[in-house]
Write a structure and sequence with these properties.
By secondary structure, this protein is an alpha+beta fold. The chain is about 35% helix and about 15% strand.
Length: about 170
């Protein structure tokens, strides 16, 4: 994707590293991601053993795990995910870029209109150096997300603009 609205509690401060830059955080279910990764590893090891007639046994299970990590990356870590607040506490809207794991591009606001106004007035990045209008941002906020960019008969545009104005 490219841009997404995340619901956060009042006062949420996205963590920063020692240099003051935002630390990217995935949105979503850490426990589910961890289980999916572990289940995948089990199937990976079983598949290697079944398909290669136990040939990986001579290298031990470490070789099996190494191949899975090369394919899927390291096991998900709790600290790489947004906190899992109770739904009733998440009353503020923030716009995030999620081309990477996710960093905020706005402060938190109570209403979609306030967030859209801030994004438009501050010429927030809809993608790279492209910005978007209040209406484009409001549509994206109400949808919840926008892809990074679109190339169509209208040219190259941010997903924020293209999804609101239509892909041609």
């Amino acid at each position: 994707m490219g841009r997404e609205v995340r619901m956060v509690p009042p006062g949420w401060q996205h963590p920063r590293n020692i240099d003051g830059h935002y630390i990217p955080l995935h949105d979503g279910d850490f426990a589910g991601a961890k289980k999916e990764w572990e289940d995948g590893l089990s199937l990976w090891i079983k598949g290697l053993r079944d398909n290669f007639d136990g040939g990986t046994e001579e290298h031990g299970e470490r070789a099996d795990i190494f191949g899975w990590v090369e394919w899927m990356g390291k096991s998900p870590r709790q600290e790489d995910y947004m906190p899992e607040w109770p739904r009733k506490e998440r009353t503020m809207l923030m716009m995030y870029e999620n081309t990477s794991e996710g960093t905020p591009i706005s402060p938190a606001f109570k209403t979609p209109e306030e967030l859209a106004r801030w994004l438009a007035d501050n010429r927030a990045s809809a993608f790279a150096d492209l910005t978007a209008s209040y209406e484009d941002w409001l549509d994206t906020i109400n949808r919840g997300w926008a892809c990074s960019a679109v190339a169509d008969s209208s040219g190259f545009r941010s997903g924020v603009e293209a999804l609101h104005q239509g892909i041609k």
